[in-house]
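Aim 2, interim progress: modelling of the adenosine-5'-triphosphate-bound target.
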Amino acid sequence: MLKIGLTGGIGSGKTTVAKIFKQLGIPVYLSDDRAKALMLENESLRKSLIGLFGEQAYVDGVLNRAYLASIVFSNDEALTKLNELVHPILQKDFELWSSHQQSPYIIKEAAILLESGANKGLDKVVLVEAPKELKISRVVQRDHVEYEDVLARMNKQWTDSQKREHSDYVISNDEKSSLLEQVLKLHDIFSDQ
Ligand code: ATP
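Predicted structure of the complex, ligand included:
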């Protein structure tokens, strides 16, 4: 069974692409969603987060995402520490999940797949790309946030050309080329291997 990484910058449309693979019957692991769930479910991760960020990390047992975001957004060291805590646990969770799947291939969707080194152990990487202004306007519309805030988050990620160097396939989500056609082409390639 092939393990395929799916990544792309903020607003590129990787979740949208992941949903198409899911519609085709392919098991999809959404790393961000699982990370959020593990921060709630995993007792040792919960303790580590409280140790790192204080009791305010949780309010009434619920992860205080606004508080955590406010810290890691302005503090790169805190963001690195958060990632260092979450990634090994997420990696194990992914391995367990994938061992239960029965499919010619599976998809692991992650925003910082390449930056975090989570592409190691995957067979192929698919990168979703879109023009910068389009990515920003999508996120502004989706999250009701400011242009500058999206740009600041974007500037913390690798550029598309850096990501391309570590990717095997590129999907262009520029709203001109057909997304479905590009996904179907990859689906055929991965199903045949
Ligand atoms: P993030 O890293 O911020 O989670 P993402 O790469 O997962 O972003 P999506 O959430 O898939 O991106 O897409 C961002 C927004 O753009 C969503 O509201 C989505 O519906 C919209 N979008 C993505 N692709 C297209 C498209 N081809 N046509 C129209 N809207 C699109």
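The first strand starts at residue 2 and ends at 8. The chain has two domains: 1-27+105-193, 32-100.
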